[in-house]
Amino acid sequence: MDNEKSFYGEDIIFSKFGTQYISVYGRNIILAKNKSDKNWHNLSLKDDIGYKSWDDSKSLFVDYNDSLVQFFYSFGFIFPRKYDGEKFITDSLVHTKYADIGNRVFHDSSGNYYCIDFNRIKNYINPYFDSKVIFNKDNKIIDVYFYSNDNNCVITQRLNGTYDIFKLNTITNSAQMRLQFYYNGMKSGVVACKNGNVLVSSVDGLILYRDRSSVPEYVFIDSTTLNSPMIQHLAQTKTGLIIVKAADRFYCSSDFGEQWTRLYQMEKNFPKSESLVKIEIYDSCNALLLTEPFCDLKYRTYILENNSNGWQTVDGDISSLSINNLTITKSGVIYANVTGNCEVVVSKDNSNSWNHLMIEGDGVRQVVEYSNDKLFAISNRSKRLFYSENDFETTIELKPELFGKPGLIFIYLKALPNKELFLTSAITNPATGQILEYFYFKSNDGVQWRELSKNVGQFLSAELTFDPKNGKIYSFVPLSEYKVKSAFWGNLEQSIEEDKKFEQFGKIYSMVANDSGKVFINAYLDKKLNVYESDENMKFHPFGNNIYERAIIFPMKKLRKNHLAFIRGYDGAFLSADGGKSWEDINEGLNLDSRREVGIVTDLYLDEHDFGYVSLDFDGLYRSVRPLVKNEVSTANNGLKLYYDSFTNRLKLDCNRCAFNFEGEMVVYDIMGRVVEKCLIQHEYQYVEIGSTLASAPYFYLLLGKDNTRINGTFFKYY
Fold this sequence. Notes:
Shape: globular
Structural class: mainly beta
Strand order of the largest sheet: 33-34-35-36-37
């Protein structure tokens, strides 16, 4: 499916000759652009590198030879790889020597490498030799400025907000205190200059500490203004130019903060609504700006170049959209949570565009599907509860008075496959907003609500699995050492207990039950990680000849009817349409070309026509190119044949069964899974009046009968 193409730049750097690099957060993608290039291009990356969204240790830097080097996390270690102009090369020697090299990597002109390890600086004369500590103080290192062997600055910060600035000699490994001052501001607001001056940004203006002086001086950077404006950003370029942003104006200084000149070109089209994360500046006219709106879909990276018309967005056919908690209604409306689960977004055009779901001017923190025509929602700020039967075109509020508790706010909803709803709510202090007391309710029909006792709180806050065979609900905390608790749903609050059936398991990752009550659990048993299934006596055995041995299946999902889904790490998604008896690898149907590159599947949804939807970590939403469930009525037994008749330029349907009493709908999809034709099928029709306008290409069809017949297949139209 098409998604909005906007990415979050993770690292932004320049080489000494002006080549620009951006790594895309959550994706195995690095963009590059030389001064002579008009467009950005992707650098070749190896697919087998574990470069994923959770790898906080990824970082880019340019070494003393002006070569691009990337440090990344893989298999428990941090590795470097260098770009040779065509591809990244990973040296296979002595990788373990890099184990303690983290994000903060520096180098000098002699080829020495340095890294920050909280309060220490380590020196690597050559990265393949052991490191030595050249700086070690009690407080956390905030920043480092390398100028020469005997003139380097290290900035540390104490817990009380006091900054210490040391002069470091990397030859003798000696550090001398140069300046100490109190500053309760952002860590990016201090710059140590080559001549010993220290500049500090503050809400009162720019502060200058001259070399060997602890007396603060306020710098008057603009003679046209009466007051010293608040400094919103302070940066130093590779050539030592100081740049500040003050009151929506940019200024630069080439003499370590003594005199200032306004930079008009940096002010044009500068984004004002986004929160600044990082500005990387090569000189007074070259800059890259990374912005990250809080809980929004539109991550943007801006660039400013020589002779430009101001700040422009970096274009690229890349998405770093990360969504989960999918809900897709009969009308095709898609609801999902964006990164961080802060608000629900909605798409009404197959995810071509997304908007925040709003109810009475408030965003929505959660949407729960109760039935095909009823949705529940909890608003984000006001924490009110609503339901709708028309995709929130109109809503009905379930007010606190309905629950007998005025002032009640609503926090979280859970729905089980048996249509049981559980609601967590609370009473807060009106003055402070602090929660004073929690309350829990459940409903069997979405209309009538019954209050539960307080002891269900911990039970409901965990993952829930419903076993329809014995009417039990299992509760467990994924990825933990906690044991499984269970309760009969009919008298939930009276029957919560630790379930002895599961006490044999260690860490549990996921669990699901099918319609007949068979339980599948991915957990450690006798120190062996596997998927285990229960028999009629609720005794567990390895599932499927150990095909998921040593595999983390997270999550397992119960989809519509008796369909189960296993989502397995880098391997993608597997689907069972018969409650776990047989399984099909659905990655091909989901058209996942490169499983490692697109990231793991974070959520999977199956619509009523058996089309699958998957969320891929920081790669948006994908829809299957054909129905994922195998034919429930085989074409060999129903006498159906569908093909394209080039003589009449129509689809021809031969169906012996259809000639008597068949009624249904024919839906035709293109190879991208988009609906291109629909028509009704009745018993007197032998030709299907669709297809005359279709382009020459392969197509998928789905025949849905009123008698629950479901037949799918393919055909090819040709001229």
